[in-house]
């Protein structure tokens, strides 16, 4: 249906004119005909009960303070839950069924703490902060001195209208709730796991521990290692059936290579070897990938992940790739039984450069 098919008295303009005429608004009618997009202005402000009754304002203030206080108590409950409930405790809660008591208590207390802060802020804004609408004209984007002064004045007006200076109970409980909520994050970070202490600096290698061939699970003898061969070994006492095998082998995996003694350029490497047999960490010093590629002619080992290349004839120094430092060397010797053994642990942490090597 087009506008021509609508009776004139039902058109929006005619309806507005009839309404204004009934209320004596002849000037508004004339203005509307002259400018159909004229600013209608803001509606009259209707005060809330808190604006005219201080007792109602006090009730709202106490309600907001109660929610902030409840948030603080919930945060304390969140922290207490870590102490009270063991990780493996299971409880039955209808209708959820059997669930972890720790997870349930953490979720309820943290959710309540955050909800009460939000609910308190909303109730504060709706009942106590000023709700007078203000129209502001558009202005240039650049911040002129007058604009800066206006912003500061508006900020001061907002602070005054929020009554944060006058409503001290709300202010103090809000600051308390906001200050205590981050404690939940501190507790969560602490419970991510035990502190590493010096575990990253030590491996299972120790003086007297034999080198066990990872293929045969037997002690390795010097005559078992031929020139140009690559053998992987692990510390004596570590078994693949151990629950911590993956954790320990990730630090203690060692590769054995036999070189001609005259091909070894690094003096310390020669002293720490046995008859040209050198032992180096298998863990790349870039991001911890296992090194498994060996070039017999050049005595280079290559990490397959990012192509870091180390020269085993020259202290395993980095000659190519993103690795930042050489592979740690394990000092070895031979025990009374003729088996290869470690003469101590690595002198520096194996793997990537954690914390800039400490």
From TrEMBL:
One Gene Ontology cellular component: plasma membrane
CDD domains (alphabetical): Rieske
DNA repair found in the keyword field: no
Summary of subunit composition and partner proteins: The cytochrome bc1 complex is composed of a cytochrome b (QcrB), the Rieske iron-sulfur protein (QcrA) and a diheme cytochrome c (QcrC) subunit.
Bilayer-crossing regions: 64-87, 99-122, 169-189
Organism for this UniProt entry: Streptomyces pristinaespiralis (strain ATCC 25486 / DSM 40338 / CBS 914.69 / JCM 4507 / KCC S-0507 / NBRC 13074 / NRRL 2958 / 5647)
Molecular-function GO terms, alphabetical: 2 iron, 2 sulfur cluster binding; metal ion binding; monooxygenase activity; oxidoreductase activity, acting on paired donors, with incorporation or reduction of molecular oxygen
Protein family membership: Belongs to the Rieske iron-sulfur protein family.
Residue spans of biased composition, Low complexity class: 16-30
Record-linked InterPro entries: QcrA_N, Rieske_2Fe-2S, Rieske_2Fe-2S_sf, Rieske_Fe-S_prot
Name the UniProt record assigns to this protein: Cytochrome bc1 complex Rieske iron-sulfur subunit
Compartments where found: Cell membrane
Residue intervals of the Rieske domain: 251-341
SUPFAM superfamilies linked to this entry: ISP domain
Keyword presence, Membrane: yes
Region of interest (Disordered), ranges: 1-48
Membrane topology category: Multi-pass membrane protein
Its biological purpose: Iron-sulfur subunit of the cytochrome bc1 complex, an essential component of the respiratory electron transport chain required for ATP synthesis. The bc1 complex catalyzes the oxidation of menaquinol and the reduction of cytochrome c in the respiratory chain. The bc1 complex operates through a Q-cycle mechanism that couples electron transfer to generation of the proton gradient that drives ATP synthesis.
Pfam families, per the entry: QcrA_N, Rieske
Alphabetized UniProt keyword annotations: 2Fe-2S, Cell membrane, Disulfide bond, Electron transport, Iron, Iron-sulfur, Membrane, Metal-binding, Oxidoreductase, Respiratory chain, Transmembrane, Transmembrane helix, Transport
């Amino acid at each position: 249906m087009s506008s021509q098919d609508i009776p004139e008295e039902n058109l929006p303009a005619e309806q507005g004119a009839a309404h204004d005429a009934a209320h004596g608004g002849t000037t508004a009618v004339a203005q509307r005909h002259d400018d159909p997009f004229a600013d209608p202005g803001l509606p009259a402000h209707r005060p809330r009960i808190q604006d005219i009754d201080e007792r109602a304002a006090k009730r709202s203030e106490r309600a907001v303070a109660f929610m902030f206080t409840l948030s603080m108590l919930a945060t304390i409950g969140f922290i207490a839950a870590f102490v009270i409930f063991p990780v493996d405790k299971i409880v039955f809660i209808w209708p959820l069924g059997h669930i972890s008591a720790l997870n349930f208590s953490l979720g309820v207390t943290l959710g309540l703490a955050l909800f009460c802060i939000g609910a308190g802020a909303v109730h504060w804004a709706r009942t106590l902060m000023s709700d007078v609408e203000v129209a502001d004209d558009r202005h240039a984007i650049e911040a002129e001195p007058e604009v800066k002064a206006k912003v500061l004045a508006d900020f001061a007006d907002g602070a005054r209208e929020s009554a944060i200076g006058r409503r001290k109970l709300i202010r103090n409980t809000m600051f308390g709730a906001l200050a205590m909520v981050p404690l939940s994050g501190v507790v969560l970070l602490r419970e991510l796991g035990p502190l590493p202490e010096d575990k990253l600096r030590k491996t299972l290698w120790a003086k007297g521990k034999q080198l066990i061939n990872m293929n045969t699970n037997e002690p390795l003898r010097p005559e078992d290692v031929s020139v140009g061969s690559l053998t992987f070994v692990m510390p004596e006492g570590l078994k693949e059936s151990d629950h911590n095998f993956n954790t320990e082998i990730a630090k203690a995996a060692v590769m054995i290579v036999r070189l001609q003694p005259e091909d070894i350029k690094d003096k310390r490497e020669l002293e720490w070897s046995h008859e040209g047999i050198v032992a180096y960490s298998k863990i790349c010093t870039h991001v911890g990938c296992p090194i498994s590629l060996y070039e017999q002619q050049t005595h280079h080992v290559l990490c397959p992940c990012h192509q870091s290349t180390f020269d085993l004839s020259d202290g395993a120094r980095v000659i190519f790739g993103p690795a930042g430092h050489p592979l740690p060397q394990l000092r070895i010797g031979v025990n009374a039984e003729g088996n290869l053994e470690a003469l101590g642990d690595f002198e520096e942490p194996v793997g990537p450069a954690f914390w800039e090597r400490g």
